[in-house]
């Protein structure tokens, strides 16, 4: 069993408050026994291209060291959602990953930038200000369980998740901030799809919905098992979800439906 915590947190315009809130909610999840905790995409800043430059920080920096300290204080691994990262004259959407001693063991820069145009609904172009990451990210817990990490729009690309599966991942984690158009249409379905086509657990953490913000997050953070079942799901408000991932059930799925050894790549 791996007990995990998904933090769907209210993110506002005050970075200091956002960081304090993240620390408080990490403790709440840890107090309920979670050993691997994920924060949402853009947890220190409102989500929007107009904010990224103002809220961006170097890594290491104040936001990353605040979460590193919280990981150590609570003896938990933390997948720190994402923050706008500044490196030289470039900005990235970056997730830092901390072990239970507060060491940053890996980081993931959003590989697929969120550039979409749905007329009358939503137009968003992260590439106007962000640079894309250029690698996938799989890290390992102390017990050997491998975790693949993507950020939000990365979930739409099955090849990335499949690469993680080939590298041994059993859990796929996507901090994400879907919206009121794509959220109800795609958010849960994409998680179930990635869970089924890779026979992995999928976990997501979204910012809570704030109708006064410029971007309205869908929320609905959730965990899905390798059978495609939703194990837990938040609504739109701030909430900490804690759930056990039964790794034996994943092995059972992989044994019963052995798709990883039945591929016919010569036909595709
Ligand atoms: N915000 C994102 O990166 C992705 C998203 O909202 C979507 O794919 O839809």
TrEMBL record:
Q: Which family does it belong to?
A: Belongs to the carbon-nitrogen hydrolase superfamily. NIT1/NIT2 family.
Q: Which GO terms describe its molecular function?
A: omega-amidase activity
Record keyword Hydrolase present: yes
Task: State what protein this is by name.
Answer: omega-amidase
What reaction does this enzyme carry out catalytically?
Answer: 2-oxoglutaramate + H2O = 2-oxoglutarate + NH4(+); 2-oxosuccinamate + H2O = oxaloacetate + NH4(+)
Look up and give the organism this protein is from: Oikopleura dioica
* EC number(s) given by UniProt: 3.5.1.3
Which keywords does this Swiss-Prot/TrEMBL entry list?
A: Hydrolase
Q: What do the Gene Ontology cellular component annotations say?
A: mitochondrion
GO biological process: what's one of them? glutamine metabolic process
CN hydrolase domain location, by residue? 2-247
Extract the Gene3D superfamilies matched here: Carbon-nitrogen hydrolase (3.60.110.10)
InterPro entries for this protein: C-N_Hydrolase, C-N_Hydrolase_sf, Nit1/2_C-N_Hydrolase, UPF0012_CS
Could you name the domain of life of the organism this protein comes from? Answer: Eukaryota
